[in-house]
Structure formats: structure tokens, C-alpha cells
Write a structure and sequence with these properties.
Layout lengths: L1 E6 L13 H10 L6 H21 L3 H11 L19 H13 L7 E2 L3 E2 L5 H11 L3 H21 L13 H12 L4 H13 L15 H21 L15 H4 L7 E6 L24 H18 L6 E8 L1 H7 L15 H4 L3 H11 L10 H4 L2 H7 L2 E5 L1 H8 L10 E7 L4 E6 L14 H12 L5 H12 L16 H4 L11
Length: about 500
């Protein structure tokens, strides 16, 4: 990897465009280097993972709205598939619908470093354009490998959240780079697409603060849609604001740490394989990633707490989760969000409340993508009582491990201190979620397929499940990428909620 120093430049400075970060990323995207077998295998796993969470979310209202928006843009030739329905639709609208389905339940892959991200958000827009363009399975693998690579590299080097900029600002450029690889575009065209994609996908983090709405699911899908449109314009000869990151009025100078700041972004050297997807990790539980290890920790501690309390959680005086800065301030009590203790809060808010999540996981010894968030579950009086006894504190050691670049130290866990009314203290800690590559039960192909089967049960017919899994696992030799879509029966689709008419 080559570490590139990125800083703001005044307009009067001599700063050739070949030195722009967007141009360096474009060169990585245009590099014809082959994709290693391990990367290709993991790409198949993540396509299966995305399909799993899409099956679980396809009948939910936000996903239904996005699907119906896409259905308002049918095409007679080419086009892309929309999850759940037959037909072909405009690629950018298919990307919006499928991206919303993937993101709705907060249940797909993650990468955490200087910034946060869900790199699987790259897959829907790149697949949509691949289907529209008639690309091969090999082309798609190469495009997705680039999308993951650029997403992870930007997340390693540039923190957005400290300036309250949403992490989708790294997604627009990574999708544009992935599309450049997929479509075999030249460096200059990819450069312009990246600049446009970044310029049109910067937004604040209010989408993840306070009363969190369904826009949290739409936000990355919208970024993918914008990246497709940016790439289309660049292919037609249109340019972008430049230098987009380093300009005097650019992203670094005015949205991030200012004109005197420097960032270091690692990128593969020419001819270096794209392996970043191997550093990412998926979720076993439908909740924000920092809650994955605490859910497993709660399940592990449950028997000890039950034994000590005689099964009466009312005897718990307090629970303090010692954890990282991110966990404390984003999904913990450091956020100062009263909604995180509100039984009437939205599902999106509850999956960003580690206090609620730990309480339910401790009581149930399990976590379910629907039952654990059901209104009647959140309103259970004994749950509310326990929930409001839970708090978080930042522990510098967990923060250090969160940001560590050493894979043997990097961790996203917590130490739980349960104090009972009689003074008994029960403590335990867990650094990594069980499903993490370094965890107790790391996910491999078998676990991805099992996750798909579990979430698709009762939603996708068995024969359609079989057909999809066969197609996905044959991706390197797959010619018809439409086979990566999943169609639901008319009877199952009819269970989707009614929604008001819109513009389309």
C-alpha cells in the first residue's frame, strides 16, 4: 500500500490534477490487476449476505416505498432488476430500491476505523449497472472489489463523524470508482465521476441522531444512485468540482478539519491486489455494529445474572458498559439522546440504543431482527425498568483498541459491570463479536448461506432460494447477472403495506 498525504491547497498553488486524491483513486480503479481468489470468494459471501437481509426487509414500509418508486421507472430494454419483483427498471432507481432493502435492518457488513461504514452498500448500485450494461460475472467481481477497496481505504484515512458529516460521503466516491472498474472506463472519466459523486453525497449525521427516521436506510442507497448518475454524466464528457477534497473551498477545508489539516489515505500500488473486503465483517445480529459484541456478551452473562438474582432482574441495581468513545457517544448514554430510553422510539432509534439492546439480550438470551424490536417487547414494564438502569462510559483502552491498526488488538467490545441491590458485582468483557473473523464463531460460506436461509424462510420460495444460491456461487462464470435477483410470489408481495401515491 502507498500512504498518500492529503491536505487543502489554495487555488493559486501549483497542484497538478494527477496529484489529486480523486485522480489517485481513479488510477486504482483503472488498474487491470486480477482479483485474488479470497477476495472473489468473499464477494460472493457478501452478495448472499445482502440478499439475506433484503429478504428480511422486503415487506417493510421504507423498502416498499423505494421499490414502488423504482417500479415507476420501467425500461423496455436493458435496465436492472429490483429485489422481489419481475421486470427491468432504470438502473439508478433499481439501485435505490435494492440499496434501501439492504440497509433497512442494519444487518449487513461493516468496517470501522477512523470512520464508520457499511461497505456492502457498494453492491446494489454496482450490480444494477452491471445488469444494465450486460457485464459478466468477472466484471462484477472486479467492480465490487474496487468499491470495497476504496471504501475501506477512505474509512481508514479520513474521519467524517467528528465533523458530523455522514459516512455516506465515502460511499459516493467508492461506488463511482467501482463503476469505473466495472465498465472499464479510463482514468480521467473515473476521476470526474468520483468528484461529482462526492460533491453530491455529503450530508450531516442528523440522519443518525435523535429520533432516527427511515432515511437512515435510504441515505446510502441515495448515495449509490447519485454515483450512478455522476458516472453517467462523466461518461458523456461532463466534469466535476476539482480538486474536490483538497480545493480551497473543498471538502477538507470546509466540511472536515480545515485548511491546515492533513490526512493519510492508503491506496494499493499499481499492480497490487485489492483485498480490503477481507478486513470487513458481517453481522450476526440486526443492530448497529458496536452492539454485536455486547449482545453476545449479554447472552454469555445471562446465566450468571439469573443465578445471582434468582431470575428476578428487578434485583439489578445498575449495569455499566465500559466501552469505546464511538459506542458511548453514538449509541450509548454519551449521546444524551432521551429517545434512546423511549419505548415509543422508532426501530431505527432502538437499534442505536445499546442500553435497550443489552437489556433485551440479557433478558431473552437471544436477539431477533423483528421480535426484539416489536413495540410490545419495548413496552414490557420489566424491560423498561432494566433498560433505564443501564449506562455507558468511555474507557480509553477500548477507544485505543477501536482505533488500533494492529488486527490482533483492534476490537469493538465492552466490559459489563452488573451491580445487584445486595452489592454483588458480576463482570465480564468481550472484545469481538462471535461472528467476527477473530471471534468465537467466525462466518464462512456455510454461515452466510444459513443466514440467508433463516431470513428468507417464509418470504422466498424454497425453489427460488435454491436457484439464487446456485447463481450467486457460480458468479465468476455467470453471464446473466439478472439471476442475482430474487422474485417473490404475488401472494407474498401482496403482504407489503399500502403506501400513499407519490410523484411517479
Amino acid at each position: 500500500m502507498i500512504e498518500h498525504t492529503v491536505r487543502s491547497h489554495r487555488s493559486a498553488e501549483d497542484f497538478p490534477y494527477e496529484e489529486h486524491l480523486a485522480h489517485k483513486i481513479a488510477r486504482v480503479a483503472a488498474d487491470p490487476v486480477e482479483v485474488p481468489a479470497e477476495t472473489a470468494e468473499m464477494i460472493v459471501n457478501r452478495i448472499i449476505d445482502n440478499a439475506a437481509v433484503s429478504a428480511a426487509s422486503v415487506l417493510r414500509r421504507p423498502v416498499t416505498v423505494a421499490r414502488r418508486q423504482a417500479e415507476g421507472h420501467p425500461v423496455a430494454e436493458r435496465g436492472a432488476a429490483v429485489f422481489g419483483v419481475p421486470g427491468r427498471f432504470s438502473a439508478e432507481w433499481a439501485a435505490l430500491a435494492n440499496g434501501t432493502a439492504v440497509r433497512e435492518l442494519d444487518f449487513h457488513d461493516t468496517f470501522l476505523a477512523a470512520e464508520y461504514s457499511h461497505p456492502g452498500d457498494n453492491i446494489p448500485p454496482i450490480v444494477a449497472v452491471a445488469q444494465h450494461s450486460g457485464a459478466s460475472g468477472r466484471d462484477l467481481i472486479r467492480g465490487i472489489a474496487t468499491g470495497y477497496e476504496i471504501q475501506v481505504d477512505l474509512v481508514r484515512g479520513i474521519c467524517l463523524h467528528e465533523h458530523k458529516i455522514d459516512h455516506v460521503a465515502h460511499l459516493g466516491p467508492s461506488v463511482a470508482a467501482g463503476l469505473g472498474t466495472l465498465l472499464h472506463l479510463d482514468v480521467d472519466t473515473i476521476y470526474q465521476a468520483i468528484g461529482q459523486a462526492l460533491h453530491t453525497t455529503t450530508a450531516t449525521r442528523q440522519s443518525r441522531k435523535g429520533l432516527i427516521s427511515s432515511w437512515k436506510a435510504f441515505a446510502p442507497a441515495f448515495a449509490g444512485k447519485m454515483a450512478i448518475e455522476a458516472t453517467d454524466r462523466a461518461m458523456r464528457g461532463e466534469g466535476a468540482p476539482a480538486p474536490i477534497w483538497e480545493g480551497e473551498d473543498g471538502v477538507i477545508a470546509w466540511l472536515l478539519s480545515g485548511p491546515d489539516a492533513e490526512y493519510t489515505v492508503p491506496l494499493p500500488a499499481e499492480g497490487e491486489e485489492k483485498r480490503a473486503i477481507l478486513d470487513t465483517f458481517t453481522k450476526e445480529h440486526s443492530a448497529e455494529y458496536q452492539s454485536q459484541a455486547p449482545i453476545d456478551l449479554a447472552r454469555r452473562m445471562r446465566e450468571r445474572v439469573l443465578d445471582a438474582t434468582g431470575g428476578d432482574f428487578a434485583k439489578v441495581e445498575s449495569i455499566v458498559l465500559h466501552t469505546s468513545h464511538h459506542t458511548h457517544y453514538v449509541i450509548g448514554t454519551g449521546s444524551n439522546d432521551p429517545q434512546k430510553f423511549d419505548p415509543d422510539a422508532s426501530r431505527e432509534t432502538l437499534d442505536h440504543s445499546i442500553m435497550y439492546i443489552f437489556a433485551v439480550a440479557l433478558e431473552d438470551g437471544d436477539w431477533h431482527h423483528e421480535r426484539s424490536y416489536a413495540p410490545e417487547r419495548a413496552h414490557r414494564p420489566e424491560t423498561v425498568e432494566l433498560w433505564r438502569k443501564i449506562s455507558t462510559v468511555e474507557d480509553p483502552e477500548w477507544t485505543r483498541r477501536y482505533h488500533s491498526t494492529d488486527p490482533d488488538e483492534k476490537a469493538f467490545g465492552a466490559r459489563a459491570v452488573v451491580t445487584l441491590a445486595d452489592g454483588t458485582v458480576i463482570e465480564d468483557e468481550l472484545a469481538l463479536a462471535d461472528a467476527h473473523p477473530g471471534g468465537n464463531r467466525p462466518f464462512a460460506r456455510e454461515q452466510y448461506i444459513a443466514k440467508f436461509r433463516t431470513l428468507a424462510e417464509g418470504v422466498v420460495d424454497d425453489a427460488e432460494q435454491d436457484r439464487f444460491l446456485e447463481a450467486a456461487q457460480a458468479l465468476p462464470e455467470l453471464d446473466d447477472l439478472g439471476a442475482l435477483n430474487i422474485e417473490l410470489s404475488a401472494e407474498k408481495l401482496a403482504e407489503a403495506p399500502e403506501t400513499p401515491a407519490g410523484v411517479f
